[in-house]
Amino acid sequence: MTTLHLTHTAALTDFAPPWHPERADRIRVIEGCLERQRFAALVREQAPRVAHAALHRVHDEAYVAATLSGLESGCLSQPDGDTHVGPGTLEAALRSAGAAVQAVNEVMTGQVRNAISIMRPPGHHAGRARSAGFCFFNNVAVAARHAQAFHGAGRVAILDWDAHHGDGTQEIFWDDPTVLFCSTHQWPFYPGTGAACEHGEHGNVVNVPLPEGADSAMFRASLETSVLPRIAAFEPDLVLVSAGFDAHWRDPMAGLDFTEEDFRWATGRLLDIADRVCDGRVVSLLEGGYDLIGLARSAAAHVEALMEPPARCFERAAEPAPEAAPVPNPAAA
Ligand SMILES: [Zn+2]
């Protein structure tokens, strides 16, 4: 079984002014790493355009229509304070969501073991009817809904370890007991949501806010104690990852202190659970990550872990856990 890798040259267009952190070089540096020999076993495919029907499962019809026409005509130049638009934005956004759908198709039908999409723009801040934080369409939500609608997935779990809370994803699945949304993120911080007391209508939202400066031990302890047991108990048919890498210590957009090895470890632990509950079905989608070195190293470690055969993941799980650190809860402070 193999790991599918999806990307497209549409992600190599800059939509925003040169100073903007969400830029094409993010994709270039990751793809540069993934061309190395140790990634030769990846199954490489071009990200297709998403079908509009897949967007309608997540977003309001009027929002989809306005966004598509606005991006196409160029009228939608800056839909919110952070999110810029330029020539090529529409093509990239359609293929970023399309990669999510294609990844689900191949993982759910057993053509590949798991999949990684290295596309932009990211998606986890996009809500049902709003763009935000560089995001137009919520790619991970589109993937979850597609898995349910087309592949009969009853339950889908999402792990979002981006430094920023996935407010759009939380909004979309807030009242849906068939989707478990788990997030570790810096808090208080942009976008302002993600307090530990936000549980969703059916207890299907798990937020683990981390204070500025939270390090590897705190990240790993938060996953071991609050997130991974919930995903295992949920017994999902598919696990999705909102794989942002702006929690890396080098990243200028956040104040967390993780390393690339944390993302390798987290990926391995998640694969262990996925192997037990859903035949290893994992689809990972790039979200944030703005320091090019930290981003490339983190994404490479994540993809390497996705490519490891299951036996190695189990061996890694048998290793002693890192020293547990108490997980602070700013909401309770
Ligand atoms: Zn982020």
Q: What characteristics describe this protein?
A:
binds zinc ion, single chain, alpha/beta, 10 helices, globular, disordered C terminus, 333 residues, Arginase, Chain A
How would you describe the overall organization of this protein?
The protein has 333 residues and is an alpha/beta fold. The protein has one domain: Histone deacetylase domain (Arginase, Chain A, 3-Layer(aba) Sandwich). Helices cover 39% and strands 13% of the residues. The protein contains ten helices and eight strands. Strands 2-1-3-8-7-4-5-6 form an eight-stranded parallel β-sheet, sandwiched between helices. Helix 6 links the parallel strand 4 and strand 5. The longest helix is centred in the first third of the chain and has 20 residues. It is globular and about 45 Å long. The chain starts with a strand and ends in a 15-residue tail after the last helix. It binds zinc ion. Zinc ion binds next to loops.
Summed over residues and divided by their number, the pLDDT gives a mean of 92
Class by SSE composition: alpha/beta
Radius of gyration (CA) equals 18 Å
What fold name stands as the CATH topology? Arginase, Chain A
Task: Please indicate the percent range of residues in DSSP E strands (runs of 2 or more).
Answer: 5-15%
> Judging from the principal axes of the Cα atoms, what is the shape?
globular
User: How many E strands?
Assistant: 8
Widest sheet: strand order? Answer: 2-1-3-8-7-4-5-6
Bound molecules: zinc ion
Low-confidence stretches: 316-333
